């Protein structure tokens, strides 16, 4: 992620219309930021930038997408009015819960019998149709060379 931010900053500074090569990006990072980035880290950052839509690959170069060139939109922070809690001195009445009626349990045997009655059909293989001799034999082409040898 940090490498991608450096690459984005580099491409904004270079302002190359056709995109900047990997060598040009590394050279800018060494001179301006005094940092070197390993090849595998750079390639991974470029690949993730392309996937996210920040970078556009052009031949052996990369340039920023139109969306990435725009400055990030500032988020508006909406402050909520503080909610004042009123202290209540009213006592709450506690109602006694009425005892719940327990429903009688149903017999589970009816469910079991229903399950037993629904049985899966055994899987049977359909018999294969035998090919006739006409279907088995495919017509063969006889070339002119073979005909001449036989004669």
From TrEMBL:
SMART domains: H15. Its main location: nucleus. Residues 1-66 form the H15 domain. Residues 69-151 are annotated as: Disordered. One of its GO terms (molecular function) is structural constituent of chromatin. It is found in: Nucleus. Keywords: Chromosome, DNA-binding, Nucleus. One of its GO terms (biological process) is nucleosome assembly. It comes from the Eukaryota. SUPFAM superfamilies: Winged helix' DNA-binding domain (SSF46785). One of its GO terms (cellular component) is nucleus. Residues 71-134 have a biased composition (Basic residues). Belongs to the histone H1/H5 family. This is H15 domain-containing protein. It comes from Eucampia antarctica. The lineage of its organism: Eukaryota, Sar, Stramenopiles, Ochrophyta, Bacillariophyta.
